[in-house]
Amino acid sequence: MKFLFALAISVSVVLPSVQAAKEVFAHVIVGNVRSLDNADWEDNIKLAQEAKIDAFVLNIAQGDEGNEASLQTIFQVAESLNFKLFFSFDYKALGAWPKEDVIDHITRFGASPAYFKTDDDKLFVSTFEGPDNAGDWADIKATTNSFFVPDWSSQGPVVAAGLADGVADGLFSFDAWPNGDTNITIKSDLEYQDALGDRAYMMAISPWFYTNLDNPDFTKNWLWRGDELWDTRWAQVMEVNPDFVEILTWNDYGESHYIGPVREKELGLFDTSAPIPYVENMSHDGWRKFLPFYIEQYKTGAAPTEFEERVAAYYRTAPALACPDGGTTGNNADFNEVEQPPQDFNEDAVFYGALLTSDEGVTVTVKIGENEQTGTFTTFPASGAGTAGVYRGSVPFGGNSGDVVVTVSRDGQVVATAEGGKPLGATCEFDIQNWNAVAV
Ligand SMILES: *[C@@H]1O[C@H](CO)[C@@H](O)[C@H](O)[C@H]1NC(C)=O
Ligand SMILES: *[C@@H]1O[C@H](CO)[C@@H](O)[C@H](O)[C@H]1NC(C)=O
User: Fold this and answer.
1) Is the backbone peptide bond immediately before 317 cis, with ω within 30 degrees of 0?
2) By alpha-carbon position, which residue is closest to atom 10 of ligand 1?
């Protein structure tokens, strides 16, 4: 068994059985974008292109009346900017998609030059759940000439790979967050690759997770550990070497894992369904800073040699115990996890990363308000200290508050800074804790 397992992994790496492999996508919740106009989409797409993202995955909920107008706008702008898009049919948010509706969407929008295709000209299609409708897809695929990579994570890799006589051309796993006070591992990714054999594996990667929403349709209030997650997971992408990578997400504000810009007009959800406005002014722009480097490394298998040195940092905006936890749990029992106090998971610390050609002669200072701490690097590129890649470390809040500025210098010369985010407060801004982070 061990031998077969290892063999399956190496085969999927060596044989390029999947067309157009090694692409990086970002998940867009179309339900959040009703108020966005052409200029907003131009901005979104240009930012994604700067980050070297290949396409947006458009998550569409069945029967959402806002979809059609939003899709027309997004496709029009994507065509003008030569960007790509494909659908993820969401079978969970508002119920299952009727087969004819799926075929209609793929057929109409698949005719656009902006629709993402594999090298052998198949329309790439994904889902959020929908295993009960697996039986629809033999027909859908045949009618639309599509390449089908659903997320059927609820079933686990073995069952999902076999559904409807193995109708999936690949699988996407939504498993992008760790269980407990620990780093995420690649165990589940390897299980997917093993179950899929030479079919495609699309790996999920996400920078953070905190949700606190309460409305008549759903109540959800938990976090998963976000400290160290983003850069640790990118290192795992290089190890797992999946066929595709999907970033969770571009604009899911409700779960705090957006890497796209925060736009006030997209935050209507928080007026009606959240006890505190936990996304307002909480920029995550810093989580895009290393993407061109990571994506090139993933695609070529080697660390790029030409790049701009950069520094990024992220932190929560108040000490964990400065106010009540708001009922937020670390972990979620619905996922068979042991729930723990949220402060056990995310430290009161400023985390920083520096993308450098080498750490030789490099120093880090972290200013919080008037206080200045000297930082060190504790995590190095896989190729070791002195080589090109992302170097990481953190310093504790240490009771300080104010603007956060992380500066990386080499031989006394400033290389790059990370600053301009919402300041770290000494106390909470609201009556309960905001477990979202700022990334600059
Ligand atoms: C997570 O991994 C990093 C190395 O990538 C290590 O420095 C750190 O101690 C780990 N943290 C936990 C909680 O295991
Ligand atoms: C966000 O920033 C705006 C502009 O500076 C300010 O008016 C608003 O109060 C801020 N809101 C929060 C929740 O930080």
Assistant:
1) no
2) 183
Q: What is the spatial order of strands in the sheet that 389-396 belongs to?
A: 389-396, 349-356, 310-316, 437-439
pLDDT tens digits along 97-135: 999 999 999 999 999 999 999 989 999 999 999 999 999
Answer whether 280 contacts ligand 2 (Cβ < 6 A): yes
Order of strands across the sheet with 371-375? 371-375, 362-368, 404-410, 413-418
pLDDT of residue 217: 79
Question: For the chain, how big is the Rg over CA atoms in Å?
Answer: 22
Protein residue closest via CA to atom 4 of ligand 1: 379
- The answer to whether 358 and 386 have CB atoms below 8 angstroms apart is yes
- pLDDT tens, residue by residue, 125-134: 999 999 999 9
CA 68 – CA 61 distance, rounded (Å)? 11
> CATH 2.60.40 spans which residues of the chain?
310-439
CATH number for 310-439 (one of 2.30.29, 1.10.10, 2.60.40, 3.40.50): it is 2.60.40
Segments of the chain assigned to CATH 3.20.20.80: 23-300
**CATH topology for 23-300?**
TIM Barrel (3.20.20)
